[in-house]
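Dear support,

We are seeing what looks like truncated structure output for some complexes. This example has two components. We would appreciate it if you could run it in full and send us the complete token output so we can diff it against ours.
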Amino acid sequence: MTTTNTSKTTALRTHTCGELTAANAGQTVTLSGWMDSKRNHGGVVFLNLRDLYGVTQVVARPDSPVFKIAEETKSEYVLRVTGKVTLRPGSNANKNMPTGEIELEASEIQVLNASLPLPFDLGEHAGVSEETRLKYRFLDLRRPAMAKNMVLRSRLSQVIRNYLYNLDFNEIETPMLTRSTPEGARDFVVPSRSNPGEFYALPQSPQQFKQVLMMSGMDRYFQLARNFRDEELRSDRQPEHTQIDLEMSFVDEQDIARVVEGMMKDVFAYLGETVAGPFPEMEFSDVMLKYGIDKPDLRYALEIKDCSALFKDSQFKVFSGALAEGGVVRAIKGEGGAVFSRSDMDKLTDLVKKHGAKGLVWLRFKEGKWESPTLKFFSDAEQAALKDLLEVKDGDAVFIAADKAAVAAPCLGALRTELIARLKPAQLKKWAFLWVRHFPLLEKDAETGNWTFTHNPFTAPLPEEEHKLDTDPGNVRSAQYDLVLNGVELGSGSVRNHTRALQEKIFALMGYDKAQVQSRFGMIVNAMDYGAPPHGGIGMGYDRLIGIICGTDSIRDVIAFPKTTSGACLMSDAPAKLDERQLKELHLKIVE
Amino acid sequence: MTTTNTSKTTALRTHTCGELTAANAGQTVTLSGWMDSKRNHGGVVFLNLRDLYGVTQVVARPDSPVFKIAEETKSEYVLRVTGKVTLRPGSNANKNMPTGEIELEASEIQVLNASLPLPFDLGEHAGVSEETRLKYRFLDLRRPAMAKNMVLRSRLSQVIRNYLYNLDFNEIETPMLTRSTPEGARDFVVPSRSNPGEFYALPQSPQQFKQVLMMSGMDRYFQLARNFRDEELRSDRQPEHTQIDLEMSFVDEQDIARVVEGMMKDVFAYLGETVAGPFPEMEFSDVMLKYGIDKPDLRYALEIKDCSALFKDSQFKVFSGALAEGGVVRAIKGEGGAVFSRSDMDKLTDLVKKHGAKGLVWLRFKEGKWESPTLKFFSDAEQAALKDLLEVKDGDAVFIAADKAAVAAPCLGALRTELIARLKPAQLKKWAFLWVRHFPLLEKDAETGNWTFTHNPFTAPLPEEEHKLDTDPGNVRSAQYDLVLNGVELGSGSVRNHTRALQEKIFALMGYDKAQVQSRFGMIVNAMDYGAPPHGGIGMGYDRLIGIICGTDSIRDVIAFPKTTSGACLMSDAPAKLDERQLKELHLKIVE
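Here is the complete output from our reference environment:
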């Protein structure tokens, strides 16, 4: 037997099923893998043997001692096949298969394991329910599409690690058993056997520990960290998810952005795609004005335009009324939207109503003329100005919202998303990154009426806005930023407070007294007393990033063993009941 | 300002505190860091500014505008210093400091943050209690020795990942929220809010999921995985710890050993040390015979010798009695042990008694003669034969245990460890790796009297021993191995069962009926029905490995934020009580 010393040669194979080519012709080799498919062609049995690396055609001829065993193998049997690599006759070569030039003339076939008939055909999973796929995840993962997702996820994590190590980041593991706080409603908790009545919490993020690492002088930290959140699941949420978490000392917003952009450059270069930083950045307030949503999909040009000035003398009560109440009139153009029927327009109107609008004004521009049920309220000058402002062409439609800015923005934002889905405008680029910067530091909590943080209680106000904490806290812009990719919020971060005085001032605005600060955030404020450096960072959703890259809507397709929306693992049957003895040891009782 | 574009240049520094040399002389630079120490020498203030990368001397002269601020800075103040790099006069250069050729003539000093007086001096931690160190971990980690441990831990994880990626392993994240089993006494559990009365368990290891990954066709898996175990803590145990976990398909024991040896080679090469595989390997039974312990420290030559044949006609009742009962007589030599006093010998006797021996026979060999309180029971021939067998020289001592093999082994094993500690024999090598192979598959459970697995319920028997499962299950050797380094068990692994029939047969020997197997191990035995490949792997304690490498007895010194032995985090005050509302949402009540 010729043994080529590839790195994947083992006791049970000389090669993988993905590597033999014409160069190996004449060699005797051993492969191990799964029986992927079988056909009998003119009395000759052809088996496709599959492993993670590819598929190799195995041939058993009627006069061969292995013919019978080859004929009897069934789908997903695990086989070890020894034989001679032979060139396929020119006409039989399969150019679509890396091993398509050769086949393996089997001289020995060993069944390493059998398989029951499969609950679903690996080649035809489209009609299979996700429930079945999750119950038999070990089969679902054998499908090359799923295996490719897993390998890509793994490989890209190493691209990211290599990139960060080259910048002298250190990966430091923060605890999974952390402090639960009375307010931590979304914490998963873990009873401590040795401290009856007390609980750990699983981390929602390593936020406090990574900041403490900066205060520990670690300078540049990262972690591919597992985070936990006990809340209702949606298609893009899981009770545990992975975050690319990083934090740096002695930096400003731009330093952090450059690090993240370089990381994305390397990630996309691995995929053969070019992504160049610096990424565009916009003020949060401008983003809301232009796109009506804080994570706009900038693959598309559509922009919301303010028309308040244009309609300042409007006779249309919908406009004049909104403006009189301090509201705005804003419009968005749908290129080619003139094809929308009255019933389409009704559906779009329903959409904006869901976002709080009282109605939606719409106009179609056809053959050089506007048409709209409300056209009579527009003066000729307004019609002309509207056409100019939005650069309207034949076949376009225009949608106008007149309301408070806080209502008009999300309505037109949702409308923008819908127009993109329906009109499929040209993509300006394949990967549209955007930094959304300077979110408000504080907002009113709808329940308590107190100020609360918009993103993160540790975010610093912009230095030039700090003075407004005393006079106008709702209008303090912060050093908080989001990274958006193709309309998905990929990550969120900020420059943090590093002095205790400023941090406590912000906590005081949120209504925390000193005791509450100590109980909830004691670790971090204590550390601020002993020389905390300026620092900042970001946390980015790794499942989400891989989901976008793999082109799937569900992050369950990029997680090896995900939970269902009810938090169950259908393969292992988690969660499960405990027995009385275990509960007793934990000093717990189940109550209805 | 001259900005050198190093990768660590940020808004707040042009260089780190560890990189300036004579080559930078004349440049104006900005450093940020902590005020490490200060001295006033002839009216000039010298500050040592420290960051993770090193220390740079900053100079403030009396005529400088920064003199006052320099004088007023205190320990651990965070400073940003701009100034000109100047060569130290030849006689003042500090060869022990990478930046010792230069100093920074400060023209600007900004206090980025102040510090309260420290609870302990970072330079003098020896007398500081571990409690204080853990409470102020953010200060403890600023000590260069601790920072070095953290960086080394991080860097070596990347060495390991690079090595495994080069062998086409993929890192695949397995779930943290897994199935709790009624028997999982050491599981940390997590109540599921959306499934009242049910719990997840945190994994004690990814064992079942990694095997399922092999059954999913993933071929080569690894993970630096966090594992959890709710048990009493010791100095080398933590409730959560990190494991280098790997699993491979289509392999035998030797394939796995070669992968691990290559990893250790790369890890030690990073440290400038040479470690070469294949590592020595021994049968478990031989190891127990020769060293009396399953994790012998083979840096030392000491070996236990069987003397049963030598004493087969002994008049000494201690020997003849033990032999008559099917026991053994075994001896170990302590080179230079003749210095032990009677009271030393008493202490060694107490030690073996703790391990179950009734007593310890000892002899000293001095000036060509044996001396011992029991010498009279040794014939001349026996005395001569003993000297020959153990190659006894002047000044040595010999210790003899006569008992059942199961008692003699651990007694002499413990004695061997103690002799090494007391006699400090020459080290044969610095790093002594050993594979201990073929542990018994099953042993009797002391409580239930049933057979139970010695290491892992999924371990395969050696193929040639499988037939003994029916006739002599206690003597079936398994494909289970440990990797030992310098007397520490670094990892444990095996080739696994991959057919359901064999796995169920072993479970049946352990007394599990089909229902119990399904409830406890359903996921894995179900997957065995559908083409599970032969596979095997290992899990190695990463904290332990780094502990050995960093030369510390406590893994707490290589974990950023460890728990105390009572499971508390002194910095964050975890664990903590929940409030009533949270408990109610979890359908839990605390009972005394």
